[in-house]
Specification:
CATH superfamily: CBS-domain
Shape: globular
Helix content: 40-55%
Order of helices and strands: HEHEEHHHEHEEH
Largest sheet: 4 strands, mixed
Number of helices: 7
Number of strands: 6
Radius of gyration: 16 Å
Oligomer: single chain
CATH architecture: Roll
Distance between the termini: 18 Å
Number of domains: 1
Structural class: alpha+beta
Strand content: 15-25%
Length: 138
C-alpha cells in the first residue's frame, strides 16, 4: 500500500505570517491537530495543536485572558512552528511512513512531490489502514 492511497490530499495549511489565532481557530473548527506551514507554495514547517497550547499555556496566561488573546493575535505561526519537518513522497510505501513517524516521534508527515505539498499522512491514517488489513485477514 502506498502513501497516496491513504493520505489526505485536501490539506489545510497555514501561512508562516499568520497570527497563532488563525491556527488555533483551525484546531477548534476543523478538529485537526497539525497544519503544514507555507510560504506561498513552499512548505517551510509544521505547527501542531500542542505547539499552540505550549505557546499560550503559562500560569500568567491562564490567569489573564487578555494576555492570552494578545499572544494569539501578535505571535506569528513561524515563531512556534517546527521548521523543515520530515516529509515523505506519495509513492512511498506506508510502512516507510510509519517507520518515519515512529523515528521522528511525530503524529504526521507532509507528503511532498516535486517540491510541492500534495497531502499529509497521519498516525490516524496508518491505524485505519491497519484495521482494514486486519479485518481483511480475518
Amino acid at each position: 500500500m502506498k502513501v497516496f492511497e491513504r493520505m489526505t490530499a485536501d490539506v489545510v495549511t497555514v501561512s508562516f505570517s499568520e497570527p497563532m489565532r488563525q491556527a488555533w481557530e483551525l484546531v477548534e473548527k476543523k478538529k485537526l491537530r497539525r497544519f503544514p506551514v507555507m510560504d506561498g507554495d513552499r512548505l517551510i514547517g509544521i505547527v501542531t495543536d500542542r505547539d499552540l497550547r505550549d505557546a499560550t499555556a503559562s500560569s500568567v496566561v491562564l490567569m489573564e485572558k487578555q494576555y492570552h488573546d494578545f499572544l494569539l493575535d501578535t505571535v506569528m505561526v513561524d515563531s512556534i512552528m517546527t521548521p523543515e519537518p520530515g516529509t515523505i513522497s506519495p509513492g512511498a510505501d506506508i510502512r516507510d511512513a510509519a517507520r518515519l513517524i515512529l523515528e521522528l516521534k511525530v503524529g504526521g508527515l507532509p507528503v511532498v512531490e516535486g517540491g510541492k505539498l500534495v497531502g499529509i499522512i497521519t498516525e490516524t491514517d496508518l491505524i485505519e489502514a491497519l484495521v482494514e488489513l486486519l479485518d481483511a485477514a480475518s
